[in-house]
Amino acid sequence: MEGYGETAELHKAHLVRSDRPVLITVVDTPENIDRLIPVVAQMMDTGLLAASDVQMIRVEKKLAAQEGTT
Q1: Structure confidence by residue, pLDDT tens digits, 33-47
Q2: Residue 33, pLDDT score
Q3: How far apart are CA 47 and CA 21, in angstroms?
Q4: Closest to 47 (Cα-Cα) out of 14, 15, 23
Q5: How far apart are alpha carbons 33 and 36 in whole angstroms?
Q6: Chain center to CA of 26
């Protein structure tokens, strides 16, 4: 298993131990989540899937270089 962090750096070494818990967060439409759940469940041996409604709030800060161009 591997993934990318906020800096786009590939992370994988610390994720390969099989005895460590893994939390994967997916935010998508209810229809896409409903289609994804059986696919993920098929991949799992044992575990827990949790689904809930969320309110997304996006915060974006402008870079100093961009502030003068708007």
Answers
A1: 999 999 999 998 888
A2: 95
A3: 9
A4: 23
A5: 5
A6: 5
